[in-house]
Amino acid sequence: MSGYLDNESLILYHKKSGRVYGFESESAALLLQIDELLKENSVDEIYSKIPTVPKAILTSFSKFLLCNEELGKEVYEPPLNIGIYKDDEKKREKFSTVPLTFFIEFPKESLKRKIYPLVEHLSRHSRTDKAINIDFIKMSEGNYWQILFNGERIAAPVREESLPLLLQENMIIAYYQSKPYLMAMHAGAVKYGRHSLVFPALSGSGKTTLTAALVSEGFDLYSDEIALLGYDGKLKPIPFCMNIKEGSWSVLNERFPKLEKQQAFLRFDGQKVKFLPPENLAKENDTVSMVIFPKYEKNSECKLERLSSCETLKRIKDAGYQLEKPLSEENFESILSHLLSRPAYSLSYGSLEEAVGRIKDLCSG
After folding, report:
1. CA 237, CA 230: separation in Å to the nearest integer?
2. Which InterPro entries match (predicted)?
């Protein structure tokens, strides 16, 4: 696998299949020429042989050689240790998502009132192949609780007001790790007609607020937090609550009247969060149509700009993602063809309504 960067595009050449992504004809030929030269020459030596290619491009290209730098060296997510499910005699309530069922024991009523809002939308009757018993153990000092999945400790103990958020985070991980997946991106994802959109972004970019606003406009929801891409290249819905941070409550109250009365919980970083059940949850998997990187900037105009494949890859990496397995040529080929080959845009905005309108226009075009 090799790559070539310039200011406009990224070319990736897969030697086994002979497929070239990005430029074609002359540029593709140049790619192969540089690829061969890099085996035995330094960047300066190549520049003397091909002086028409800027040295900065050659330097970027040499660093981006996937077979030397990236391939096989990506950090991938280890499986969550959830122990082995055993049917016990404890009084538990059942909450199901295909293919996983959670059996929860609530040790006290006040804790149940906190946790129930994040699971009450889940099925109470579905039968699935995999199951997890969830228990909460009160620590001896302070108001701290430990979460157990099938008897195994999942994370460090947290205060009761942060327990629901930590629980949902690990339920989501257990959910998407319960079946094979190619990539789990830190991104919102929605569907509108024949278009499925992914919104990778760092925390604080307005990703969840934009996703929720689109859902209120009739978009189907895949997730506000994790865009899950299968090996078939299709997005898969994650049926858990949207987490709305305090700064977005007033913005979304009119779109979601129930939000105002929802209980608030404390996140690990001190921010307050409310849960919103996943409305309009997507009913089927679909391929990615567009990748949009949102960024809320107060009082800024709404600006949509097309991105190169190179910038798309960089921004996805910056936003964060997980792989089920270490990166291989076959897996990267799938990411190329199902994600990086799609149209990608940056979207900066100060008005949520304008951002929603711009995305609708994209989907209608």
Report:
1. 11
2. P-loop_NTPase (IPR027417)
pTM equals 0.80
Domain extent, residue 155, equals: 93-177
Closest CA to 241 of 261, 257, 221, 219: 221
| Structural domain count, the chain | 3
Calpha distance 192→197 (Å, rounded): 8
Q: Which of 177, 212, 240 is the last residue of a domain?
A: 177
Query: Is the same domain home to 265 and 359?
Result: yes
* Residue 172 CB contacts under 8 Å (≥ 6 apart), including other chains: 225, 226, 238, 240
- Summarised one tens digit per residue, pLDDT across range 316-333 is 888 888 888 876 767 777
Are 213 and 165 part of one and the same domain? no
Q: Do residues 346 and 304 touch, judged by C-beta distance below 8 A?
A: yes
Residues 167, 200, single domain; the answer is no
- Looking at the fold, whether 236 and 338 belong to one and the same domain comes out as yes
DSSP assignment of 155-211: S--EEGGGHHHHHHHHHHHHHHHTS--SEEEEEEEEEETTEEEEEE--TTSSHHHHH
- Measure the CA angle with vertex 128, ends 122 and 129; round to 5°: 145
User: Is it the case that residue 173 has pLDDT exceeding 80?
Assistant: yes
- Cα–Cα distances in angstroms (integers) from residue 58 to residues 24, 207, 363, in the given order: 18, 35, 37
Cα angle vertex 154, ends 318, 246, to 5°? Answer: 55
